[in-house]
Design goal:
The complex is a heterodimer. In chain A, helix 10 runs antiparallel to helix 15, helix 11 runs parallel beside helix 16 and helix 11 packs parallel to helix 27. The radius of gyration of chain A is 32 Å and the shape is elongated. By secondary structure, chain A is an alpha+beta fold. In chain A, 49% of the residues lie in helices and 16% in strands. The chains are: A alpha+beta, B mainly alpha. At the A-B interface, helix 4, strand 3, helix 7 and helix 8 of A face helix 1 and helix 2 of B.
């Protein structure tokens, strides 16, 4: 037998020896191929469909495709829309859809279903459209296929659509195509004119007209995005960069037309169209980079968007969007579910109100107590009577507070706009002076004077200046995106670079914001068996137990006793009362008892993030003095401030107090970076100079924040500040270079020594230098 | 120089053809999912379908 025949097949990168065969996560000792039962099931499903090829092409991050043990039971049937003829259509946003192979797997796995007519996923938008013939209820089966493969799906929301539908971006791309076509073809003709010194005047006249015939429509159509923006700026009384571009391009086109008519030596249509093409390219890239970040935020929000279970008078539940529930309706709140509406509970309830008040311990509510929207149900499922519809509720009130804070912040003037305000009037004054110098003083014909004046406009047209900042933005935003930091606002980087103090929220920001198992009092075997039971429940404490021991084999035949605990054979896991112990004071304890053995208690607490002190120290060394602002009690806040190494803290702060503290800092002339995750932080986030929200933050906080950290922890925050500062420095260099180049080029243009060839070379070379310099902005 | 009479229109026509193709592609939303399109050309098989019972 040849040596070749005996060699083992080489495992691909995703499926190395110590990695899970489905999700690629590292395997714990003792695990053969899979990290959990969910992955084993998913692998079996993929193999059963004959789609193994997926694993050879998979390029997802390790662990992202691990199916959740107890996936949330979202009802997709109401979201499906009937297309007529018995065809149903479902639009989903699918998290985890991050490589081409995933698209292939999802499409193939759904297409195998006999009644599915089409399944098409878009990688850039994470949107999946499925059509099938049959009942709307099939939507749930199809969504379950996705869940079993390890993808999390949510209904495609209007916010997703707003983030992806980019009519403006398409207009820019169309304009770029037209400008590119014009610039290339006119250059073809212009080169003939430049080198054809022995060309007869009539032939040159013909070529001029040809260039004009291409150039005029191109300048009019492709320049539209600039003209529209310049007109808006003009009406607002603010000279902008677009105004300079528009005037430069239009004046060049008009002057070239006059030169064409009188058959002058050169026309300048090539310069005008090339300028448009270069500037449009900058815009298109700038937009594409930010669109990606906006889409990711919309995706995060869609996954949090859910339906509520409304109880009909006959006692049956129906899934409806939260907006459809009116005051007086009764809704069912499942264990672990987040309240989406304000209400009064009909039963006793245990709620984690960390997102609304910042308290780190769950609080019990008696029947009839008012329950705040945004709290998470830590106890048994209960029914509540809704006291206010979504648009009148406390979440909507918080959103209004946020809006007002945003309006009060005042418009931040980006560095490029500040440069434009100085630059535009100066350039136009120089151009006008050039005209009067040649026409009035040197007695040149007015056409010649006009050519020289327009040359000044063209040479100074802020090609490099207009590219200087966007190019840096594209590179820096892209670099942050790869590190899991989403930049949602255009001026966020500039503001982040200038931040000089950091205000942190406590619960969910410096701490994990969810219960974490405290060590002590249990051994590994017991923990693994308890976690095996806990995997069957969505209860926050059970989920925390699973996180503490993710490799535990799932127990068989687990039965959930609603509101009390889980039973599997002789083993019971649940509240202390469930196993016959006195109840715990704070509701942060799980008890586990196997048969007649002594019960074991698992205590949980909201623990500080491991990387919090490091991140705080790193920010402090960058000159951002840290401060803690929390709605929790004094003791907890002081202890955490000490642990995290933060000197100044304020406890018991409600949303208004948080916003007031930010306003006070701003009034002192400080530029605070606010980091928060809760509904109660949203207004402060919006009011701050710049704001960030960590992974897992509430949707309201993520909407208000300029930066969204996608990965767990705060470690990326100092890196983001460093990248922002570096980007800002490079943007300044670029602006400096552009201005310096103009200082050299303008005298040449005023002297009338610039030919179209010189203009083209100078324009292109300065743009390239600026772009090359911008490429350095991605490094940390 | 008579050759210019043919060559310039030909080159313009080719350029216009490219422009029209670009605008068509943009209009039929082929630029909406660039990442997906790049991966999609590697899918070598059509979705298989089990015949409905």
């Amino acid at each position: 037998m040849s040596l070749l025949g005996r060699t083992q097949p080489v495992a691909s990168g995703a499926v190395s020896v110590a990695a899970c065969a489905h999700c690629g996560a590292r395997l714990a000792p003792g695990q053969a191929r899979f990290c959990c039962a969910g992955c084993e099931g998913a692998h079996g499903l993929v193999a059963g469909l004959g789609l193994d090829a997926f694993y050879r092409r998979q390029a997802t991050e390790a662990g992202t495709l691990r199916p959740e043990a107890a996936a949330p039971a979202l009802d997709f049937a109401p979201v499906a829309t009937a297309q007529g003829d018995g065809v149903q259509r479902l639009d989903l946003v699918v998290s985890g859809l991050s490589c081409g192979a995933c698209v292939w797997l999802v499409e193939q796995a759904l297409a195998v279903e006999p009644d599915v007519l089409s399944a098409r996923a878009a990688l850039a938008t994470r949107r999946l459209t499925i059509t099938w013939r049959g009942a709307a209820a099939r939507a749930n089966d199809l969504a379950r296929v996705l869940a079993r493969l390890g993808f999390r799906a949510a209904p495609w929301s209007p916010a997703c659509l707003r983030a992806t539908e980019d009519a403006e971006g398409r207009r820019l791309a169309r304009a770029l195509g037209i400008a590119g076509f014009g610039a290339m073809n006119i250059m073809l003709i212009s080169v003939a004119v430049w080198v054809g010194g022995d060309m007869g005047p009539s032939l040159r006249h013909g070529l001029h007209w040809l260039a004009a015939m291409i150039g005029l429509p191109v300048v009019l159509v492709a320049g539209m995005p600039f003209y529209a923006s310049a007109w808006a700026a003009l009406r607002a009384g603010r000279p902008s960069m677009d105004l300079a571009v528009s005037l430069g391009v239009l004046a060049t086109a008009a002057m070239s037309l006059s030169e064409t008519i009188r058959n002058g030596p050169y026309t300048w249509f090539d310069g005008a169209t090339m300028l448009l093409a270069l500037l449009l390219a900058g815009r298109v890239f700038d937009r594409a980079a930010r669109r990606r970040a906006r889409q990711s935020v919309a995706e995060l929000l869609a996954l949090q968007d859910g339906l509520v279970t409304r109880l009909r008078p006959d006692g049956r539940g129906e899934s409806v969007p939260a907006e459809a529930v009116a005051a007086g309706d009764r809704v069912l709140v499942a264990a672990g579910e987040r309240l989406r509406l304000d209400g009064r509970s009909d039963d006793a309830a245990l709620l984690d109100a960390a997102a609304t008040t910042g308290e780190s311990l769950p609080r019990s509510f008696a029947p009839g107590d008012a329950l705040p929207a945004g709290a998470v149900n830590m106890g048994a499922a209960f029914t509540m009577t809704v006291s206010a519809a979504a648009k009148d509720g406390s979440l909507a009130a918080m959103a209004r507070l946020l809006e007002r804070a945003e309006q009060a912040k005042g418009r931040f003037v980006a560095i490029a706009d500040r440069a434009a305000r100085l630059y535009v009037p100066v350039v136009h004054a120089v151009a006008a002076a050039t005209f009067f110098l040649w026409w009035g003083v040197l007695d040149a014909p007015w056409q010649v004077a006009l050519v020289h004046a327009v040359c000044v406009l063209l040479i100074t047209c802020p090609c490099a200046l207009a590219l200087a900042v966007p190019a840096v933005q594209v590179v820096a935003v892209g670099a942050l995106f790869r590190r899991g930091v989403l930049v949602t606002s255009a001026t966020a980087l500039e503001r982040l670079a200038s931040a000089d103090c950091a205000v942190f929220d406590k619960t969910g920001t410096l701490t994990e914001g969810r219960p974490v198992l405290l060590p002590g009092g249990h051994d590994a075997g017991v923990l693994a068996r308890a976690a095996g039971l806990a995997g069957a429940s969505r209860h926050p404490l059970a989920q925390a137990l699973v996180r503490a021991c993710p490799d535990a084999p799932l127990a068989d035949a687990v039965r959930e006793v609603p509101g009390q605990g889980l039973v599997a054979g002789a083993a019971r896991l649940g509240s202390p009362a469930f196993v016959g112990l006195p109840p715990s004071a704070d509701g942060m304890t799980l008890a586990f008892r196997e048969g007649d053995a002594a019960p074991v208690l698992f205590r949980f607490a909201d623990r500080m993030r491991d990387d919090a002190p490091e991140a705080v120290a790193a920010l402090a060394s960058l000159g951002l003095a840290p401060e803690l602002l929390s709605g929790d009690g004094e003791g907890a806040v002081a202890a955490l401030a000490w642990q995290a190494g933060i000197g100044g803290w304020q406890a018991g702060a409600d949303p208004v107090a948080k916003q007031a503290r930010i306003a006070a800092l701003l009034a002192e002339g400080r530029r605070p970076l606010m980091v928060g995750d809760g509904i109660n932080d949203a207004a402060a986030l919006a009011a701050a100079h710049v704001s960030a929200s960590p992974a897992g933050a509430t949707d309201l906080a993520q909407t208000a924040a300029d930066l969204v950290l996608q990965r767990e922890g705060l470690a990326m925050l100092p890196a983001a500040v460093r990248i922002a500062r570096r980007a800002q420095a490079i943007a300044r260099q670029n602006i400096g270079f552009s201005v310096g180049y103009n200082v050299l080029a303008v005298p040449v243009a005023v002297a009338g020594l610039v030919t179209p060839l010189v203009a083209a070379v100078v324009m292109a070379s300065s743009s390239i230098i600026v772009v090359l310099n911008a490429l350095r902005a991605g490094r940390d | 120089m008579d050759v210019l009479l043919y060559l310039i229109p030909v080159s313009l026509l080719l350029g216009l053809l490219g422009l029209v193709a670009f605008l068509w592609a943009l209009r039929s939303r082929q630029y909406d999912d660039l990442d997906g399109a790049a991966a999609r050309i590697l899918f070598d098989d059509k979705p298989r379908k089990e015949t409905p019972p």
